[in-house]
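wait is this the right file?? whatever heres the structure
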């Protein structure tokens, strides 16, 4: 009985370790899926300084791709995190 319990726990541990190796892809990083939906639309973004795609802010990526950002909502320290 003890051996079966050890085997089950080992299998559960292996499954958990395997699940943690998969990389999570955030929604803002899936630009090929969302950019066609955003073309020609008025876009409002709620973000702070952590809203990054790679090493660029999400706002910068949207503007570089000529998307129509009309409003930015952010917390008290600004979306770049440098406001007092």
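ok assuming it is, sequence goes like this
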């Amino acid at each position: 009985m003890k051996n079966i319990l050890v085997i089950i726990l080992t299998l559960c541990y292996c499954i958990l370790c395997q699940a943690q190796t998969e990389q999570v892809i955030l929604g803002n990083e899936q630009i090929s899926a969302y950019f066609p939906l955003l073309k020609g639309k008025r876009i409002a973004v709620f973000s702070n300084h952590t809203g990054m795609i790679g090493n660029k802010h999400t706002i910068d990526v949207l503007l570089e791709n000529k998307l129509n950002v009309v409003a930015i909502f952010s917390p008290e320290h600004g979306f770049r995190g440098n406001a007092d």
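The helical segments are 2-20, 31-38, 58-64. so i think its the right one actually
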